[in-house]
Amino acid sequence: MTNVVFMWCRHKGDNIIGVDGHLPWCIKSDSEHFWNVVQNENVVCGRKTYEGFPTELPVLKKVFVFSLQKDFVVRDSASHIVITSQKQLEDYLSEEDDIYVAGGAEIYKLFMEGKEKFKPHIVVDCVYEGDMKTEGTVVAEISDCISVLEKKYRKITPDYCADNVASAIWVRKGEFVEQKILKKVLAILENDAIIR
Known about the structure:
- By secondary structure, the chain is of the alpha/beta class.
- 28% of the residues lie in helices and 28% in strands.
């Protein structure tokens, strides 16, 4: 079974995850948590999110980039693959392949509302409680995904707080969740965090 893991960082109160294609805050520990969680895993993201990734990526299995630009060029054609649909993604994966969805907002919504097979089993919900850069014209927010999260998932951890980010793990109600994934994510979130 393919396990689907979401990891996002949203702004408290308005669920904003981006402004003009960029994170409206810069939290080193949050970025480190993200890259530690997805290391050695398959990552799925949209084109804008991909373009915002650092030049030097940690070791990842594959990076699947959703893009409507058929001529979009990825940095590493051997392990970064441009796709246009969940069906195309399905063709690349085996039943044993887990995927970690890294955004942006349209990709989170597609997976939260799309094919049952690709709805997340685990959501790492990181909530930034500080100030953010507000100048910009295009705001990306995930309020629809948060509504689904609150209805169909249950929070199984306390908040792990570091640098104005409160992180918690949610799982789909009534579903089996892969314990090794939970243990890995939990160990990363607990590192240097205050439990609330």
